[in-house]
Write a structure and sequence with these properties.
Elements lengths: L11 H13 L4 H14 L4 H8 L3 H14 L18 H11 L15 H8 L11 H10 L18 H14 L4 E11 L27 E9 L4 E7 L4 H9 L8 E5 L8 H9 L2 E5 L11 H11 L8 H17 L4 H10 L2 E4 L2 E4 L2 E2 L5
Parallel strand pairs: 1-4, 4-5
Antiparallel strand pairs: 1-2, 2-3, 6-7, 7-8
C-alpha cells in the first residue's frame, strides 16, 4: 500500500511564514489557499480532507504538496503556463518598438506623432512584414518595453562662433584663480503677489494664500554678485535692468587694485562702452558666457534657493518688505555658507608662495595675465 502524500517536516521559519500568511490574509487568494493546504497537511490531515477544506481537486492538493517537498515555500507562487500562443516574436516586438519611436513623417505618414490606433493600423500595412496586434495589446507591449507617451521638449543650441573659447576661458579662470573670480547676473521680474510654493503640513492641510490678478506695485529685478572663493552672495533690487545698474553692482565687487575676473551673461546691458571702459581702467576682465549658455554662469545655481526661500510660498505686502526678507536670507546664507575651517584651508592652499623660482600661487605658477 502506497504511503499517503504529506508534507515534510516544516522548519520554524517555514511554519511561521505559513502562519503569517494565514493570519494576515492580505496576500493573493492562490497563496492563501496553498498555505492552507500545507498547514493542514503538516497538521496530519489527509489529501481528501484538505481538498474538501479548500474546495479543490485532490490532484491539485497532491501537486502542491509535492512541489513544496521539492522547492519549499517557492511553491506558493504559481507558474502560469498555457493559454493562447504568442502572436509576436521577439523580432516583431523590436520592430514595433522601433516604429513607435520613429517620427511618422520619416515613414511617409502625414502626421507628426503616433496614436495607438494609427500605429496599429500602420503595422498591419507594412510591406513584407504585416503585424496584426490589437490596440490594448499594443499599449501593454509599449508599456512593458518602457515606451510611454510624453511631451516633447525644445532647446536652443548656442550659435555663438566663440562658444568653445568663452567656455574654455571661464573654466580656466575658475580653476586657476578662484579667489579672484566673481559672477554677476539678474533675476526677475519679481512682483508683489501671493506666490505658491511648498511647506511641511498635515496631510491635506497645506498653507493657503489668497489669489489675485492685480499688479499694483510694479516689478523689481535682483542684481546679484557671487564671490567664488568666499562663497558669498549679495545684491540689490532695482526697478529695471540697464547698464547703469549693472555698473553699480560691478563696482561693489572692486575691493583693491588686484586683477579680478567677472563672469556674466552676454547681454547688451552687460557690455556697454561705459562698463568696458571701467573694466579696463580697474583691471577687471569680463568673461562673457556664450549666447544661450547662461548655465555656464556659476551664480545660476545660487539663484534657485534664493527664489525658493524668499519668493516662493510668500505674500509680501510691498517691495520694501520683500527686499528686507531677501537681504535677511542673504545674511543667513552667507553666515552658514561653508565651515570656516574649510575656507581657511582653501585660502592657505591658494596663498602666494615666494621661492627662488619666483612667486607661485597655491603651488602653481602664476599666469602672466594675473
Amino acid at each position: 500500500m502506497a504511503e499517503p502524500v504529506r508534507v515534510r517536516r516544516l522548519t520554524d521559519q517555514e511554519g511561521q511564514k505559513l502562519q503569517q500568511i494565514m493570519h494576515r490574509g492580505s496576500t493573493s487568494s492562490v497563496r492563501f489557499r496553498r498555505a492552507m493546504m500545507l498547514l493542514a497537511s503538516a497538521g496530519g490531515d489527509r489529501v481528501p480532507v484538505i481538498a474538501q477544506l479548500v474546495q479543490a481537486d485532490e490532484d491539485t492538493v497532491r501537486d502542491v504538496i509535492h512541489r513544496f517537498n521539492e522547492i519549499g515555500l517557492a511553491c506558493l507562487d504559481p507558474r502560469w503556463a498555457g493559454g493562447r500562443p504568442r502572436l509576436l516574436s521577439p523580432d516583431d516586438e523590436d520592430f514595433v518598438v522601433q516604429t513607435a519611436t520613429t517620427r511618422p513623417t520619416k515613414l511617409g505618414q502625414p502626421f507628426t506623432r503616433w496614436s495607438i490606433r494609427k500605429l496599429a493600423a500602420y503595422l498591419r500595412k507594412v510591406h513584407a512584414r504585416m503585424i496584426r496586434i490589437g490596440r490594448e495589446a499594443l499599449r501593454c507591449l509599449l508599456a512593458r518595453r518602457g515606451i510611454t507617451f510624453q511631451r516633447t521638449k525644445t532647446w536652443k543650441e548656442s550659435p555663438d562662433p566663440e562658444r568653445d573659447a568663452k567656455l574654455d576661458r571661464i573654466e580656466h579662470v575658475l580653476d586657476r584663480f578662484p579667489d579672484r573670480v566673481f559672477a554677476f547676473d539678474e533675476f526677475g521680474p519679481v512682483g508683489i503677489r501671493p506666490t505658491g510654493g511648498s511647506c511641511w503640513a498635515g496631510q491635506g492641510r497645506p498653507e493657503r494664500h489668497p489669489a489675485t490678478y492685480h499688479r499694483t506695485h510694479g516689478v523689481r529685478y535682483f542684481h546679484g554678485c557671487y564671490s567664488i572663493g568666499d562663497d558669498k552672495l549679495w545684491g540689490v533690487n532695482r526697478g529695471k535692468k540697464g547698464a547703469g545698474n549693472t555698473l553699480a553692482a560691478l563696482r561693489s565687487i572692486r575691493a583693491d587694485g588686484a586683477p579680478i575676473y567677472v563672469i556674466l551673461d552676454n547681454l547688451s546691458a552687460h557690455k556697454g562702452e561705459t562698463i568696458r571702459y571701467w573694466a579696463r581702467k580697474n583691471r577687471v576682465e569680463l568673461c562673457f558666457t556664450p549666447t544661450y549658455a547662461s548655465w555656464a554662469n556659476p551664480i545660476e545655481a545660487h539663484f534657485g534657493p534664493l527664489r525658493q526661500f524668499t519668493v516662493a510660498n510668500s505674500n509680501h505686502r510691498n517691495h520694501t518688505v520683500q527686499t528686507r526678507a531677501l537681504h535677511s536670507y542673504l545674511r543667513w546664507r552667507n553666515k552658514n555658507a561653508r565651515h570656516p575651517d574649510l575656507l581657511a584651508a582653501q585660502r592657505r592652499e591658494r596663498a602666494p608662495i615666494r621661492s627662488e623660482k619666483g612667486i607661485r600661487w597655491g603651488g602653481r605658477p602664476l599666469a602672466s595675465a594675473a
